[in-house]
Write a structure and sequence with these properties.
By secondary structure, the protein is of the alpha/beta class. It is 39% helix and 16% strand. The strands form two sheets. Strands 1-2-3-5-7-10 form a six-stranded mixed sheet, sandwiched between helices. Strands 4-6-8-9 form a four-stranded mixed sheet.
């Protein structure tokens, strides 16, 4: 059974994550297959629009921590993850979109979700810094961006009301709605569609270069052993034992933007 399946609907390519027994969590094999499919899609003369969805009750539960502890991550270039695709991708979110699964949704250009979808930015649970950029990229108000960064869960209804989702539908209407959105895109002049998607991506909000440098510093500001402890505790189904800081005084010696040249 392929870990990623594809379907052709005219000029539309449906990409379906297919590890339902793991809520489509991303292991090395899945990452490599996704990179291959999106690379082929990028230069294909057949396809103009992509739809990304999942099999079963999960869109994508994020990193498969059990396997990543042993195997590490794939370094194969993926034009979807690097935002280099010149073609629009519609996210059809059918269930849990957590951590890396949320990041997949974030990289789509248009989004439809089923009413039972659940979203979570999970970095704060696995690293030394929460997902501070996601709320900015989504252009959310500060308290909502803070809620996202601190790992709270969001229902599809709430994200629809906040403007993160374009459509909210019952589960059996998910793919028909995504395909309807794709068909609209195909009615547009090809250059207008491609140029507009490219321009809209350029004007998305994001962190400044100095803010990104501060985030890199904060990713190292604490006991690095807590990163692996979070994964080990999750896979072993136990409560984590945190260290926090190698030097307790470091919690009061925070890197700031004033420390970043520029």
């Amino acid at each position: 059974m392929a870990v990623v399946e594809t379907e052709q609907h005219g000029q539309v390519l449906v990409v379906r994550l297919n590890r339902p027994e793991r809520l489509n969590a991303m292991n090395r094999e899945l990452r490599q297959e996704m990179a291959r499919i999106w690379t082929d899609f990028r230069t294909s003369a057949e396809f103009e629009v992509g739809i990304l969805t999942g099999t079963g009750r999960g869109f994508c539960a994020g990193e498969d921590m059990k396997e990543s502890l042993a195997d590490g991550e794939s370094e194969q270039p993926d034009p979807f993850m690097s935002l280099e695709l010149e073609k629009p991708v519609i996210g059809a979110v059918n269930g849990f979109a957590m951590g890396g699964g949320f990041m997949l949704v974030e990289r789509t250009d248009l989004r439809v979700a089923s009413t039972n979808a659940v979203f979570e930015v999970s970095e704060v649970k696995r690293w030394l810094l929460g997902g501070c950029d996601h709320g900015a990229i989504a252009n959310m108000p500060y308290p909502v961006a803070m809620e996202m960064a601190l790992g709270y869960r969001f229902t599809a209804q709430r994200f629809y009301e906040l403007g993160f989702l374009n459509r909210l539908v019952e589960p059996d209407e998910l793919m028909p709605t995504a395909l309807e959105m794709a068909r609209h895109l195909l009615t547009l002049p090809p250059a207008a569609r491609v140029n507009t998607v490219h321009m809209m991506r350029q004007v998305r909000p994001g962190l400044t270069a100095r803010q990104q440098e501060l985030a890199r510093a904060l990713h190292q500001h604490g006991a690095l052993s807590d990163r692996m402890e979070s994964r080990a505790a999750f896979t072993e189904k136990r409560a984590p034992v945190w260290k926090g800081w190698d030097d307790p005084g470091d919690r009061y010696r925070m890197p700031t933007l004033a420390d970043i040249p520029g």
